[in-house]
Design brief:
The protein is α+β, with helices and mostly antiparallel strands. It is built from 4 helices and 4 strands. The chain has one domain: DHBP synthase (Alpha-Beta Complex), CATH 3.90.870. Strands 2-1-3-4 form a 4-stranded mixed β-sheet, with no helix packed on it.
Length: 123
């Protein structure tokens, strides 16, 4: 966390039983990430507490980089869209399951495998 947050690294942890089912989908795990994008950071600061979100694309479809490119199935079902400008794009966040030993990379992303292993304590 110290090496990559804020940024494109999602860590999966055991979820506390008190967390709402909507956050865990009943899987007893939860992914956590601290964003590096200035608009996301400002939103969290303004709200004053953690927020939850997902990618703004349909499952199996590529993400978009601009609000006008959002799929109509998404835009027709939301109350508000916060336009943070044109996004960089590229690979999404790297996702690591921290509930197993050694941690397991679930999805390769912007943080490389080599960078991850270099930060972990050597056994």
């Amino acid at each position: 966390m110290q090496a990559f947050w804020p940024g494109r690294l999602t860590l999966v942890f055991e979820a506390q039983q008190s967390l709402p089912h909507q956050l865990t989908a009943g899987r007893q795990k939860i992914g956590v990430r601290i964003p590096g994008h200035a608009v996301a950071v400002a939103l969290v600061k303004q709200v004053g507490s953690p927020i939850t979100g997902t990618s703004a694309n349909l499952s199996g479809h590529p993400g978009c980089h601009r609000v006008p490119d959002l799929d109509r199935q998404i835009t027709s079902q939301v109350d508000m869209i916060l336009d943070g400008g044109t996004l960089e794009g590229g690979a999404g966040s790297t996702v690591i399951d921290m509930t197993v030993d050694p941690p397991r990379i679930l999805r390769a992303g912007q943080v490389s495998t080599e960078e991850i292993w270099d930060c972990l304590p050597k056994k």
